[in-house]
Specification:
The complex is a heterodimer. By secondary structure, chain A is an alpha/beta fold. Chain A is 28% helix and 19% strand. In chain A, strands 5-4-18-17-16-6-7 form a 7-stranded mixed β-sheet. Chain B has one domain (23-447): Formate dehydrogenase/DMSO reductase domain (Formate dehydrogenase/DMSO reductase fold). In chain B, helix 5 runs antiparallel to helix 15 and helix 6 packs across helix 7 (199-208). Classes of the chains: A alpha/beta, B mainly alpha.
Chain lengths: 1045, 469
């Protein structure tokens, strides 16, 4: 230490002052202390920094910041808005088999977590169905294909790219001879453009399009009728009479979201004199649509054609419609075979369709909706009927079909998409078997699993020298393919989709591909050798060319923001000059052979939640109960009770289902309301995965019925035999009791209150009184008012200030489709628990969709169905609250029954004392067994519950909090009110029919308060003085007096 | 009550201690069980019981590790065997205090032969019972939150919850019963200390004998304390099961929400408690040669209590049904019809046959004075009373909304835990038999003729009869 003597010394220690050697050493030694001990500690500074650096890098990689490199507008415009914990919403679109909807997707720090409908999209108007709600989980499916695979061995992306380049070069040399492409329906202009270029580049290549859930007959029927392929868009908000011909148009069929949404308009009653629309269902299977029908006629699917002819005949006889000659000629022959009941039904329906008085200032018009599984003849005939009754242009519009081709592009000779699904795959199989296909490119889909069994597609595919599959998962097809390339999820890709009515949506990704993946268009561009090949450039480039560069930047930004545009008219309705049904030339009417218990008719139905099997590895959708059977994690052979009795079968019996010499092992289930001598099975089950969800031991769920299908008749088979095998197969159902009558001669319990509309008008307050009296049957006005039991002391809180949350569920429009359940699962991090736990009665869903059959004495085999979503009723005097020993469930000043997870010790007393049994207990740590990727889908605003705590519906308290915060920040009372009105729980948001209304009941102007003041509003078990905050609007049916007789 | 003079045969009841015992032989006979080396039979029994106890430990350990999901509980049925077992064991724990306290206050001197026994049974039964509420909760590590622990959040338990009342009621009952039992043990512990041959034994009993020397003052304090504790324990006998019944009665669930529950539960508890005393006493008196102290008269008296309380229970069953019908409340009456004829109807009929029909056999003097019959019938009552609690708890399986209904089946862990609780009970009981006097020596001496200052035997050592009541 050297200092000048004349300056004061500043010193730190005596050592320093004295300049001791040790001090010198300590100051000069860079690595103070013993280096070796530090090493032995295990953590050196370098090591520490190394770990920190690596973990920070990994956090940013694994955690969240997987942003696409391209510009997503919200980020580009307002990066300061991207706050951790504050979700962003992006508009995009998706489609299931060509059924396009617009979406708004919630993104939390870069992770898409929740799907909502885009309110601006004219087709779904903000609504969604359960498939859309569940589709976000597909992104995080642990079974996804993560790297390219060559013969199932992992390969590098470079190798895959190189392979494609080589293949492309070879093919170009041969002008594409021997090249075949099998794609799924993909109504995308960019994709059609690339397909066009592909077929130009490889003129001899063949392009097939295949969907297992096929709309072939609809296309064929309407093409025969109108001379070109069109698709119907039903305007059910104007249709006073809706006749479903074996169509589940409210739920599983395409455009179900729009249909349900529009149908609900004329099913809700605001004032007691409001007219109601009427729904007739003619069907064999008991569909969701059938369960909402005012009248339902049980006919086997093959008999529906005769019904349609009879209906046409009746309308023709009444001179109401004119028919093309060939149709007219076929009526006498084709309308045979209906029994008296069916004929009475035909007459009543025809009379109702002809009733064209003025309602609400317009002509009362009906519409006939033929189902996807019905024959082409039915579709053509239905179009003729619709034309005759004035439905076309009013209650139904026929839009040019965009699912197969873009009419702007002149058709290429190699494009065989127009063959349709079944003929297409049949032709491809023939070509494969004939050795004509050297290289097969399978774009998405899973034909090895879902192709009709009679084709032997898997064996045929093996004959191609090279097979490339762009696959979501290492699925059945990918395993058989030479190359399997990971396909991007729709939330990972740029794209564009054209909805049924021609609305164009730009599909923008929410996240970079998790594992690296290509979309269809990216793969095509790569094969074509384009540069660049990324989806963003392809889509943006396409649209820039299409609408011109002038002002494109602004337009593009607006499209992305809005999620859709109508800048160009891609397709339109059928021109008025062509709106004339020409006939049904070229269509052969289908056979309807007689059926008996030993020779059943067998219908193949798309599954409500698995569709064609593409969602088979989706725990949310597997665990969403079937709307009618209430079964989860399995499919069954449904039989009517009478048919089952004839075959001496009961529920859960193992059976063998045999058609034309092919048999699969299956399970029997008795489905009330099914047509006799009919068996129904759902598609999509029996898939096998390597990396299956941990909920099922056997590695497969349900049984695969595709081997029984034929390409010629993929939806229906005849002469099926259901033979009993030994033993029972355990099934899991979330609702073992189907009736509101508890048994032992007790009267129906008044949870669902319903009346025919005429009776309702006489007694609009019928639903208000709440209790039943022993010995007096309910309904028909036999409910008795009962003052609520009195509390020992008054509640000190009156719940009359501030916000008071409440909910109203309209039973008249609730279709029972289960969308709310999946939306709730997605929003509230509800764990899937697996089949075994469901069998033990431990489903965790916060919404229980109660489904009851009600039997009409006159027609006991054709029961009605009522659906009732059962959620926490948020009782003001909640029985759960006073029994909790640790005060873990308490009431908020805003009237919510709050569940405090970290205070709960799990006595389960609250659940016992809940009269509705809507509290769900975490018997195990259900989060523990879940795939790690599922962590990414969770809503960060909602706690993941540990084992041993109770949970239940919170009215989406996190959304309420968000809304309240925004209201607090609002500057004017009007804006404040708007923010409060915008609070929507996930179930209410997703509901296709808007049957769930939530809001502040203290604000008398709010929609929910007005509904609570409605005649039909009633609370459950009010006599217990529980004061439920959730109430229901009574169901009012609209039966045809002629059929009630 | 007691007679001071000779009486003709049959006017006064027979003596409570038979077999010509004097004070010394009483002490000898009872202390011998403790002092002699354990027999092979005792070891065998303890081996079995403690193995079953170990099984209970295993079942509980697995429960804590995995969660309550290992049991058969489901969504409508949130309480299963654990709560059934809890109520069952608490019920059994009623006889001891009843015998000790209420019969003491009523000067039923025959109780002295069985009270020690019954009190021990009570303590052990309550220990078994207390296991269940502790382990049945979902988060066992947080169960202590049920206690009123001061904390910085001013977060108290919910005093409106019957479950909380239950915690207080049962723990109070346990504490008082334990004290009562221990106070009664003090003079006998001193006797064992005085007879002890080894040092360890001497000090062990000595510590617990609290320096008892049999002084007049000791006896005075002892009697006073005993009387006070009896007075304290008496209301508890009635309150514990009343409050246990509140767990059900305070709810809104049909089949639970019933005002008859408190008296009905108390009667049932005494019924089951006495049955359990019989189950234990009949073989024990045989094995340990206590027939002279626990005589047929004791057995018969207890059978009479079983008959009375069994009939009360039967009345309660009938009254529940009557009220369910009379109320015209459809949910309520359905719950009872369903109880009888629904999916758990078999359990209901087991309950009624065991609890209502079985005790009626005790109208026959022949049956109620037969140890074989008593033993067999007491087992039936035990089974019946377990099923009573099962039937009541299972009201959950069908309450208001039919779509929520389900069935309940126990898993192997439910069964192992229940059987294991018997392991706990018998382990404790066997240890008790071996280390503590099974019959209250000092008290039984008090009911012997020799204890009467006017006993003729002071003058006539060969007095044939001395009547005592």
């Amino acid at each position: 230490m050297k200092t000048r003597d004349n300056e004061p010394k500043y010193w730190r220690s005596l050592d320093e002052l004295q300049g001791s050697a040790a001090w010198e050493q300590a100051v000069t030694d860079e690595f103070a202390g013993d280096l070796e001990t530090e090493e032995m500690d295990g953590t050196t500074r370098r090591h520490f920094l190394g770990i920190m650096g690596a973990s920070m890098a990994m956090t940013s990689l694994a955690g969240c910041i997987r942003r696409p490199e391209q510009h997503i507008m919200a980020y580009g415009e307002m990066p300061e808005n991207v706050l951790p914990g504050v979700p962003n919403w992006y508009a995009t679109a998706t489609h299931v088999g060509g059924d396009v909807v617009g979406l708004l997707v919630e993104s939390n720090e870069g992770r898409p977590t929740k799907i909502e409908g885009n309110p601006a999209h004219p087709i779904n108007m903000g609504r969604t169905n359960s498939l859309h709600q569940g589709s976000v989980l597909e992104l995080y499916d642990p079974a996804r294909l993560k790297t390219p695979r060559k013969g199932m061995a992992p390969a590098t992306w470079d190798a895959a790219a190189k392979f494609l380049e080589t293949m492309s070069g070879e093919m170009r040399g041969k002008s594409g001879r021997g090249l075949a492409v099998l794609s799924q329906v993909n109504p995308s202009p960019t994709y059609y453009h690339l397909r066009d270029r592909f077929l130009t580049r490889f003129p001899q290549a063949k392009w097939y399009t295949y969907e297992s859930v096929s709309y072939d007959t609809q296309r064929a029927g309407l093409t025969a009728a109108y001379g070109r392929a069109v698709r119907p868009l039903y305007r059910l908000n104007k249709a006073w009479v809706v006749v479903s011909l074996d169509a589940d148009f409210l739920c599983t069929e395409h455009n179900g979201v729009s249909n349900a949404n529009l149908w609900s308009v004329l099913r809700s009653i605001d004032k007691k004199d409001d007219e109601l629309s009427r729904l007739y269902a003619v069907e064999g299977f008991y569909s969701v649509t059938g369960s909402n029908a005012d009248h339902r006629l049980r006919l086997r699917p093959s008999q529906v054609e005769a019904f349609t002819f009879a209906l046409a005949g009746e309308l023709l006889a009444q001179k109401r419609i004119a028919l093309p000659a060939d149709m007219r000629a076929a009526i006498p022959e084709r309308s045979k075979g209906l029994d008296e009941k069916a004929m009475a039904f035909v007459k009543a329906v025809a009379a109702d369709l002809m009733d064209s008085r003025t309602v609400r200032g317009g002509v009362r018009t009906g519409v006939v909706v033929p189902g996807r599984r019905q024959s082409a003849v039915v579709h053509a005939l239905a179009a003729a009927i619709n034309e005759g009754i004035g439905a076309v242009g009013s209650t139904v519009d026929y839009y040019i079909d965009y699912t197969r081709t873009d009419a702007r592009l002149p058709p290429k000779s190699g494009d065989l998409s127009g063959l349709g699904d079944m003929a297409g795959i049949k032709a491809l199989t023939a070509a494969l078997n004939g050795g004509e296909v050297e290289t097969l490119l399978v774009l998405g889909g899973n034909p090895v699993y879902d192709a009709p069994g009679d084709l032997g597609f898997a064996e045929a595919m093996a004959k191609a020298k090279t097979t490339v599959h762009l696959a979501d998962q290492p699925n059945e097809t990918a395993k058989k393919a030479g190359w399997a390339l990971p396909r991007a999820h729709y939330l990972e890709t740029w794209g564009d989709l054209v909805a049924l009515d021609g609305t164009v949506s730009i599909q923008q990704p929410l996240i970079d591909p998790l594992y690296g993946a290509w979309s269809e268009i990216e793969l095509l561009a790569r094969i074509l050798g384009d540069e660049p090949t990324d989806g963003y450039s392809l889509v943006r480039g396409y649209w820039k060319r299409r609408v011109g560069p002038l002002g494109f930047f602004k337009k593009w930004r607006k499209w992305l923001h809005d999620g859709m545009h109508r800048e160009v008219q891609v397709i339109g309705t059928l021109p008025p000059t062509q709106r004339r049904v020409q006939g049904m030339a070229g269509l052969t009417a289908a056979d309807a052979p007689a059926a008996g218990p030993r020779s059943l008719e067998l219908a193949f139905i798309e599954d409500t939640h698995l569709y064609d099997g593409r969602y088979a590895n989706n725990a949310w959708l597997q665990e969403a109960p079937d709307p009618m059977t209430k079964l989860v994690w399995d499919n069954v052979v449904c039989l009517s009770p009478a048919t089952a009795a004839a075959l001496s079968l009961s529920n859960e019996d193992r059976v063998s289902l045999e058609v034309a010499g092919k048999a699969v092992d299956a399970v029997a289930w008795l489905q009330p309301g099914l047509a006799d001598n009919l068996a129904t099975v759902t598609l999509g089950y029996g898939r096998r995965f390597d990396n299956y969800l941990p909920y099922h031991d056997e590695g497969t769920v349900g049984f695969d019925v595709n081997p029984l299908r034929t390409a010629d008749a993929p939806n229906l088979a005849f002469g099926a035999v259901v033979a009993k095998r030994n033993g029972k197969y355990p099934l899991a159902t979330v609702q073992p009791y189907d009736r509101l009558e508890p048994g032992f001669g007790y009267e129906r319990r008044p949870f669902v209150r319903e009346l025919p509309v005429e009776e309702y008008r006489k007694n609009p307050q019928f639903a208000k009184p709440g209790i039943i009296e022993h010995g007096k049957p309910f309904p028909q006005g036999k409910l008795v008012a009962h003052p609520p039991a009195r509390a020992l002391h008054d509640d000190p809180i009156k719940y009359d200030t501030g916000y008071q949350w409440g909910m109203v569920i309209d039973l008249n429009t609730c279709t029972g489709c289960n969308t709310c359940i999946v939306a709730c699962v997605s929003e509230n991090n509800i764990m899937s628990v697996g089949k075994d736990q469901i069998r033990r009665g431990r489903d965790m869903h916060w919404i229980r969709m109660d489904r009851y059959f009600t039997t009409n004495e006159k027609d006991p085999d054709n029961p009605h169905v009522v659906h009732q979503p059962m959620v926490c009723q948020q009782c003001e005097m909640a029985p759960c609250e006073n029994v909790c020993p640790v005060a873990a469930t308490v009431h908020s000043p805003e009237g919510l029954n709050d569940m405090v997870y970290n205070r709960c010790i799990g006595t389960r007393y609250c659940a016992n004392n809940c009269p509705f049994k809507v509290r769900k207990f975490n018997f195990y740590n259900y989060a523990k067994g879940q795939p790690e990727t599922y962590h990414m889908v969770r809503n960060p605003d909602v706690t993941v519950r540990f084992r041993g705590v109770m949970e239940k519906c919170t009215y989406c308290t996190q959304r309420i909090s968000r809304g309240r915060r925004r209201a607090n920040e609002a500057e004017t009372p009007e804006l404040k009110k708007k923010e409060i009105a915008a609070i929507t729980p996930a179930c209410a948001q997703a509901c296709p029919t808007g049957s769930i209304v939530f809001g502040d009941i203290n604000d008398k102007e709010s929609r929910v308060a007005k509904l609570k003041a409605h005649d039909r509003d009633y609370g459950l078990l009010t006599e217990l003085n529980i004061r439920p905050r959730t109430s229901y609007l009574a169901k009012v049916r609209n039966p045809n007096p002629k059929l009630v007789g | 009550m007691s007679a001071h003079t000779k009486s003709p045969d049959g006017v006064f009841p027979p003596p409570l201690v038979q077999g010509g015992h004097d004070f010394h032989s009483v002490t000898d006979t009872i202390c011998k069980i403790v002092e002699e080396p354990p027999t092979a039979g005792w070891f065998a029994a303890l081996a079995v019981a403690s193995s079953v106890l170990a099984m209970l430990g295993g079942a509980i350990a697995w429960l804590i590790w995995e969660g309550t999901g290992i049991w058969g509980l489901n969504n409508p049925v949130g309480w299963g065997w654990a709560i059934v077992n809890f109520v069952f064991w608490v019920g059994i724990g009623h006889a001891g205090t009843l015998i000790s306290a209420i019969l003491f206050l009523f000067r039923q001197r025959w109780r002295t032969a069985i009270n020690r026994f019954a009190e021990a049974m009570t303590i052990f039964a309550v220990i078994c019972a207390l296991v269940f509420p502790g382990i049945h909760v979902g988060r066992i590590w947080a169960a202590y939150w049920m206690g009123p622990l001061p904390n910085q959040m001013a977060m108290w338990p919910n005093f409106r919850s019957p479950l909380l009342w239950d915690v207080f009621a049962v723990s109070t009952y346990f504490t008082v019963s334990l004290l009562f039992w221990y106070v009664g043990l003090v003079p006998d512990l001193a006797t064992l200390r005085d007879r002890a041959k080894g040092k360890i034994r001497y000090y062990a009993y000595g510590v617990f004998a609290l320096g008892w020397r049999g002084a007049n003052r000791h006896w005075q304090n002892y009697e006073r304390a005993y009387m006070l504790l009896a007075g304290l324990a008496t209301p508890l006998v009635l309150s514990v099961h009343t409050i246990v019944s509140f767990d059900f009665a305070v709810s809104v669930i049909p089949g639970w929400h019933t005002t008859i529950f408190p008296p009905y539960f108390v009667a049932g508890a005494i019924f089951s408690g006495f049955a359990m005393v019989q189950t234990l006493a009949v073989p024990s008196r045989k094995i340990f040669g206590l027939e002279d102290f626990i005589t047929i008269r004791h057995i018969e008296n207890m059978n009479k209590v079983i008959l009375v309380t069994g009939t009360m229970v039967g009345y309660a069953y009938a009254m529940e049904f009557f009220i369910a019908w009379y109320s015209a409340a459809p949910y309520e009456s359905f719950a009872f019809i369903n109880r009888m004829f629904g999916p758990f109807g078999w359990a209901y009929f087991i309950m009624v046959s065991c609890n209502v029909i079985t005790p009626q056999l005790f109208w026959s003097k022949k049956i109620r004075t037969s140890t074989t019959w008593t033993f067999i019938l007491s087992i039936f009552v035990n089974i019946g009373m377990w099923f009573e609690r099962f039937v009541i708890t299972m009201s959950l399986h069908r309450d208001f909304v039919p779509s929520s209904w389900d069935y309940y089946s126990p898993t192997v862990f439910d069964i192992l835990t229940f059987i294991g609780s018997f392991g706990l009970f018998f382990t404790l009981f066997l240890l008790f038999l071996k280390f503590l006097p099974a019959v209250a020596i000092s008290e039984i001496k008090g009911v012997m003729p020799e204890a009467d200052p006017h006993w003729d035997g002071y003058h006539d050592a060969h007095a044939e009869e001395a009547g005592h009541g």
